């Protein structure tokens, strides 16, 4: 905080009369003590370097436990938690296997890559994660965003994308820059999520109906469906639509009462695994000489993924891509993927926090490490999954140890069950994805937004429509841009109240801005004050700054301009109730002009007493 004003200044700015003699006396003192005044109003340079410095005690036990949450909960682990964690981990494992395969298909990768992405995050989050409910792995939105860039370029680009996303998330976490996601508002997030769900579901309609073609964009998907609708396969369509109906019915089993409640709960939680197993058995039984009545997933590479460095170069279609070429091909997803991953994961942590505070920095560090380590095991980008986290929570998980069971289940599936994945009907996987997307389209959020603040429906629909028509990344940027325009407009148009007050023999125009003032609002403030002064013939204009916590150099310059403009109207200006830090900003611009015009901690009565019609302020 800046030091106190010198007594000579206080005697004028607070107690002294605003007369020519007073100003002259103050000016002489200011001239004699110019150096002291500079010290009084000087501003220290911003300490940006502090962002990159380690604080004292960076290796303290407290910080180590904070950055390795396992050291906090594992010593207090109760053996009674073991069964609950194993049951929850098993349930999540049965959910993630069909989802992982399905999301790999969405990403344009071979099915095994979905499983490669589903286990390492569980192990890393076990050590670094701070929320017991979160499960890290492939998600629908991340898969779709990967698909845009890697569908025609192959797995190396997905692995590099995971590595780069992990590095960026980790760096943002270490630098406490997670606040960046706060620029993505709820209407934009809801529009983005809804558009992603609609796009993903649209891309699966072809597999649901057994149609040929390969497209995952919204418009392309429906163009492909319309163009090939005559090739619809009856058995694929019946199985797919039937699977969706069964999934929706099984969801309702969780609402059973009485002795069937527990049974219905676990059947509902395991519904994805049940329909995939049922579809696989049906396809196997109906196969004749290896030919089934449905389109099948086909060969899935068995065994564990190779442990290797993420690819920093790749050869695709006889063309060699260097690291810079690969990053160029990934384009804006290098930035978009980390932000979306952080947004999803932090939102899930908050949803399941149950009133507890969330360490966003630790969650970002954990998520970044999950992606970095996963990229060494052929993983595509991963983040927290809301569906599986909800399953984890509903299954009664007690600690992050539940993720160990989930990871082991996925590894066992890769090692022992890969051969059976051959018979999974594509239409069943499409049905699993479409059924999940029904609940990602946020109709309720749109209704909430409309009910709460109708203007916010604009960024919602702008984001939704542009994401569908132009792609998720561009839609997100446009949505944020539109939302920021609203914020900037509000910043540039502060509410300015005014009233006329007659105190003693002095008629005053009191102008009251309701927020801090920045460069975008400066000209608006000036125009309003000058116009109000013209409309109200008063002897004194008082600008009440009780709500102003900050001004910048542009505003300080404009305040000086207001004084000059009102001088032409022969109306003096006083600044009343402005905070000391704000005053100092103006003083640094022109102390001689501003010091005698600031009044702090006084009433309008006192200002009126100080004011005399025969002794007005001169600039």
Automatic annotation (TrEMBL):
Residues 19-29 have a biased composition (Polar residues). It comes from the Eukaryota. It is a multi-pass membrane protein. This is STAS domain-containing protein. Residues 19-39 are annotated as: Disordered. It holds the Pfam family Sulfate_transp. Keywords: Membrane, Transmembrane, Transmembrane helix. Gene3D superfamilies: STAS domain. It comes from Aedes albopictus.
């Amino acid at each position: 905080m800046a030091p106190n004003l010198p007594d000579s200044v206080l005697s004028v700015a607070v107690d002294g009369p605003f007369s020519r003699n007073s100003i002259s006396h103050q000016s002489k003192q200011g001239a004699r003590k110019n150096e002291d005044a500079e010290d009084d109003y000087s501003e220290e340079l911003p300490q940006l370097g502090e962002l990159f410095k380690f604080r004292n005690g960076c290796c303290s036990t407290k910080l180590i436990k904070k950055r390795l949450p396992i050291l906090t909960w594992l010593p207090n682990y109760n053996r009674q938690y073991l069964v609950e964690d194993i049951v929850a981990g098993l349930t999540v494992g049965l959910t993630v296997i069909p989802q992982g395969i399905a999301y790999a298909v969405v990403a344009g990768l071979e099915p095994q890559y979905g499983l490669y992405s589903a286990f390492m995050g569980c192990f890393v989050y076990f050590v670094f994660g701070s929320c017991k409910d979160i499960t890290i792995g492939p998600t629908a939105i991340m898969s779709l965003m990967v698909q845009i860039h890697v569908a025609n370029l192959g797995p190396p680009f997905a692995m590099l994308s995971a590595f780069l996303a992990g590095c960026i998330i980790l760096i943002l976490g270490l630098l406490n820059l997670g606040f960046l996601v706060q620029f993505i508002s709820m209407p934009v997030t809801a529009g983005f999520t809804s558009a992603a769900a609609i796009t993903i579901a649209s891309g699966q309609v072809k597999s649901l109906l057994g149609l040929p073609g390969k497209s995952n964009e919204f418009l392309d998907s429906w163009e492909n469906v319309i163009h090939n609708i005559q090739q619809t396969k009856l058995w694929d369509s019946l199985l797919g639509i039937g699977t969706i109906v069964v999934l929706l019915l099984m969801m309702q089993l969780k609402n059973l009462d009485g002795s069937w409640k527990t049974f219905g709960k676990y059947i509902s939680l395991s519904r994805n695994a049940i329909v995939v197993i049922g579809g696989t058995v049906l396809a196997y039984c109906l196969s004749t000489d290896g030919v089934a009545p449905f389109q099948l997933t086909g060969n899935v590479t068995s065994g564990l993924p190779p442990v290797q460095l993420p690819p920093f170069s790749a050869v695709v279609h006889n063309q060699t891509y260097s690291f810079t070429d690969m990053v160029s091909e990934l384009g804006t997803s290098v930035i978009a993927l980390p932000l979306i991953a952080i947004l999803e994961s932090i939102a899930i942590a908050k949803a399941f926090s149950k009133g507890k505070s969330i360490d966003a920095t630790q969650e970002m560090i954990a998520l970044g490490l999950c992606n970095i380590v996963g990229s060494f095991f052929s993983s595509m980008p991963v983040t927290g999954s809301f569906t599986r986290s909800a399953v984890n929570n509903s299954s009664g998980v007690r600690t992050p140890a539940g993720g160990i069971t989930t990871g082991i289940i996925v590894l066992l599936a890769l090692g022992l069950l890969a051969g059976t994945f051959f018979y999974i009907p594509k239409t069943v996987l499409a049905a699993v994805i479409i059924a999940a997307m029904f609940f990602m389209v946020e109709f309720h959020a749109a209704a909430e937004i409309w009910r709460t603040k109708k203007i916010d429906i604009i960024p919602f629909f702008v984001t939704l429509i542009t994401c569908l028509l132009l792609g998720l990344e561009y839609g997100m940027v446009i949505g944020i841009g539109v939302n920021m325009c609203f914020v900037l407009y509000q910043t540039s148009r502060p509410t300015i109240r005014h009233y006329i007050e007659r105190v003693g023999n002095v008629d005053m125009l009191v102008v009251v801005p309701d927020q801090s003032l920045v460069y975008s609002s400066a000209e608006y403030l000036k125009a309003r004050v000058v116009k109000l002064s013209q409309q109200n013939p008063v002897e004194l204009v008082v600008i009440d700054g009780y709500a102003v916590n900050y001004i910048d150099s542009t505003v300080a310059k404009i305040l000086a301009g207001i004084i000059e403009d009102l001088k032409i109207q022969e109306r003096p200006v006083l600044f009343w109730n402005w905070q000391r830090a704000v005053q100092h900003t103006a003083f640094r611009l022109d102390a001689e002009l501003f010091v005698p015009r600031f009044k702090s901690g006084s009433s309008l009565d006192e200002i009126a007493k100080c004011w005399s019609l025969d002794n007005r302020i001169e600039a």
